[in-house]
């Protein structure tokens, strides 16, 4: 079936699903495949659940006019997303980076949606399946689309750009994340920089955090550049006013707003706040809306959440972790006011051959500060000081934490997603 014909069916049934457990009546079901599943085997289940059509790339014996066989279901999903994207003449803002992209995306969405109909990535559906699904959820009333793009190997961002076709882009930073897939820090910059490459070739615009000189270098050649940072040579500037509990940002250039009192934890969120301010101003969001949106935004999903429980203050930042994000989180925690501080850190995934060395570096960093207790979870933590506590899994760490019955203590809980460090609090 030609993509134009499929798009006509989509317009009649503008809802796409890849999980038969979530199908609603009228959805178009795309049968995708992975290492441990094959969606083609669930065609009849999808039909029984109310799917209007099933897009398969294997013959399964299900004979039904609702079944459409294509060469590759995933590629067809992406082509359909591109066809849908081509119907819009609005700003599509793409966001990528090693750390902070989901928080930045949420802040930007909060600011833009205060004034305009804005669609954005749900949660962190930012991969080769999530990006096209996000695009296909955008409706005709859209004024803006904010698309998060994650990547763990080269050419991935370039692929997303082919069908998301961003008009504007933002790279939060290029840190040590997904080293296993990228191979080196230089390749991380090249991989994330594929977004800027697309903008250069397509007369796009980029928002640049000028404090990171490498982002300034990477952006050379882009037609339009909007800058933000802590210096004087930017269009929008600000600095950390306070980070006792929550981050307070003083705004010093580009806006009449004097400050933003956020519900975010940590000075490392300063660039994320400034990015949202810059984008809000660029697209004419009233300043009072920018301020209220940023101050009302409360993080969720274990991202820089401040939880008060049993007289303790707990920073739960357990959605993801890599050497770069671990470093800033630990340094921020060390600067917080408090006599009793407990670190509970899970291992960092996708570090490849550098994993043991990066975990050793983390141990050295931790050792530079004084802590009440240090608990490390995961098999890649080696060569630990005698005072550090080590567990193989989060279940053991949870049992330990419960027995301590801490009072009036600051606790930082952080680790890669697969470590599920948030279970310590269950």
Reconstruct the topology from this structure:
Layout: H1 3-12, E1 16-17, E2 28-30, E3 33-34, E4 37-38, H2 43-48, E5 53-56, E6 67-69, H3 73-85, E7 92-96, H4 101-113, E8 118-120, H5 130-136, E9 144-148, H6 156-164, E10 168-171, H7 179-182, H8 185-192, H9 194-201, E11 205-209, H10 213-218, E12 224-229, E13 236-242, E14 248-253, E15 259-261, H11 270-282, H12 287-296, E16 305-309, E17 312-317, H13 323-335, E18 341-346, H14 355-367, E19 373-377, E20 389-391, H15 394-404, E21 410-414
Parallel strand pairs: 1-2, 2-5, 5-6, 7-9, 7-10, 8-9, 10-11, 11-12, 12-13, 17-21, 18-19, 18-21, 19-20
Antiparallel strand pairs: 3-4, 13-14, 14-15, 16-17
Helix proportion: 25-40%
Overall structural class, as computed from helix and strand content, comes to alpha/beta
Number of strands: 21
First-to-last CA distance: 49 Å
The rough form would be described as globular
Mean pLDDT comes to 94
Q: Looking across the biggest beta sheet, what order are the strands in?
A: 8-9-7-10-11-12-13-14-15
Low-confidence stretches: none
User: Any idea what the radius of gyration is?
Assistant: 23 Å
Count of individual helical segments: 15
Strand content: 15-25%
> What's the story with the biggest beta sheet?
9 strands, mixed
Overall description:
The protein is α/β, with parallel strands linked by helices and 426 residues long. The relative contact order is 0.09. It has helices at 3-12, 43-48, 73-85, 101-113, 130-136, 156-164, 179-182, 185-192, 194-201, 213-218, 270-282, 287-296, 323-335, 355-367, 394-404; strands at 16-17, 28-30, 33-34, 37-38, 53-56, 67-69, 92-96, 118-120, 144-148, 168-171, 205-209, 224-229, 236-242, 248-253, 259-261, 305-309, 312-317, 341-346, 373-377, 389-391, 410-414. It is built from 15 helices and 21 strands.
């Amino acid at each position: 079936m030609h993509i134009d014909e499929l798009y006509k069916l989509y317009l009649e049934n503008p809802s796409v699903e890849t999980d038969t457990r979530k199908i609603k009546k009228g959805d178009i079901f795309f049968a995708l495949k992975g290492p441990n599943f094959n969606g083609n085997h669930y065609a009849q289940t999808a039909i029984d659940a109310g799917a209007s059509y099933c897009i398969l790339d294997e013959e399964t014996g299900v004979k039904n006019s609702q079944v459409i066989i294509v060469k590759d279901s995933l590629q067809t999903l992406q082509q359909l997303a591109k066809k849908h994207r081509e119907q819009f003449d609005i700003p599509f803002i793409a966001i990528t980076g090693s750390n902070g992209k989901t928080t930045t995306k949420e802040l930007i969405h909060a600011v833009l949606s205060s004034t305009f109909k804005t669609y954005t990535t749900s949660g962190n559906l930012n991969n080769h399946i999530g990006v096209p699904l996000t695009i296909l959820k955008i409706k005709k009333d859209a004024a803006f689309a904010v698309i998060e793009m994650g990547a763990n190997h080269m050419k991935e961002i370039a692929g997303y750009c082919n069908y998301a076709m961003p008009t504007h882009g933002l790279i939060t930073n290029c840190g040590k994340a997904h080293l296993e897939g990228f191979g080196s820090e230089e390749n991380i910059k090249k991989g994330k920089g594929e977004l800027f490459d697309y903008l250069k070739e397509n007369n796009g615009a980029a928002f640049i955090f000028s404090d990171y000189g490498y982002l300034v270098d990477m952006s050379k050649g882009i037609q339009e550049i909007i800058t933000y940072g802590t210096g004087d040579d930017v269009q929008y500037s600000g600095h950390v006013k306070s980070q006792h509990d929550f981050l307070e940002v003083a705004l010093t250039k580009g806006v009449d707003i004097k400050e933003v009192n956020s519900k975010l934890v940590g000075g490392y969120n300063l660039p994320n706040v400034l990015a949202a301010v810059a984008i809000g101003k660029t697209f004419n969001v009233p300043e009072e809306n920018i301020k209220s949106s940023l101050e009302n935004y409360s993080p969720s999903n274990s991202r820089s959440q401040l939880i008060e429980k049993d007289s303790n203050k707990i920073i739960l930042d357990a959605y993801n972790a890599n050497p770069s994000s671990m470093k800033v989180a630990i340094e921020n925690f060390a600067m917080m006011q408090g006599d009793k501080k407990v670190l509970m850190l899970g291992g960092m995934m996708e570090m490849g051959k550098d994993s043991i060395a990066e975990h050793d570096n983390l141990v050295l960093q931790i050792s530079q500060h004084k802590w009440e207790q240090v608990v490390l979870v995961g098999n890649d933590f080696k060569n630990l000081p005698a005072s550090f506590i080590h567990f193989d899994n989060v279940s053991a760490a949870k049992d330990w934490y419960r027995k301590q019955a801490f009072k009036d203590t600051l606790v930082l809980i952080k680790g890669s997603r697969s470590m599920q460090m948030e279970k310590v609090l269950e």
